[in-house]
Amino acid sequence: MSKSELNLTPVAACAADPVVRDPLTPTEAVELAAVFKALADPVRLRLFSLVASRAGGEACVCDISDGVEVSQPTISHHLKVLREAGLLTSERRASWVYYRVVPEAFARVSSALITESVHA
Amino acid sequence: MSKSELNLTPVAACAADPVVRDPLTPTEAVELAAVFKALADPVRLRLFSLVASRAGGEACVCDISDGVEVSQPTISHHLKVLREAGLLTSERRASWVYYRVVPEAFARVSSALITESVHA
Hints:
Two copies of one chain form a homodimer.
Chain A: H1 3-6, H2 26-38, H3 42-52, E1 58-60, H4 61-64, H5 72-84, E2 88-93, E3 96-101, H6 103-113, H7 116-119
Antiparallel strand pairs in A: 1-3, 2-3
Helix pairs in contact in A: 3-5
């Protein structure tokens, strides 16, 4: 799923969102469910969290392997799933691949679920 | 998963969260992945959205059946999954069951993923 397909909401729009948004359309629900599916695996969620918690929201794959008890190919597979879901971007620099959180993707997930009761 | 097991974060804490949070622990990741799994189905996500978009974050099951092209037993199953994930509560009043969004559950999901890049 590409960024444009996700119709990403600017981060700054968060505070200005209407307190009650319209229900998701079937198409929006399919797109968003795919993002949640990418986050629905504990190892994948930890890897995402490890990237997100680094200063600048960026981490080298060499930094995030420590402390995760799965093989390097499995880590690479999970990072690829997160990238394909639009949650991370990656960039190769010299020998290492660096992963970065896509803040707009998170804003889209948040704004899709923000309700009056959350704001109240 | 119960509310206490989720160690829910108060909604008001959102704005005061540190800009970079610690990575999720393995236990937190397992708990949170279960919440994302509940939201990772398009029909379930639409049902959640239909409840969340109602004024007061509450809806009668009779209100949210319209426009969702699945059978009533399937709707009931999906609502049960959302309830078991701590995202909805339910209450029977006369002949109908009413579902309500649990705002703390959403705040927990949001705060677990908030990063410096999102706030920047």
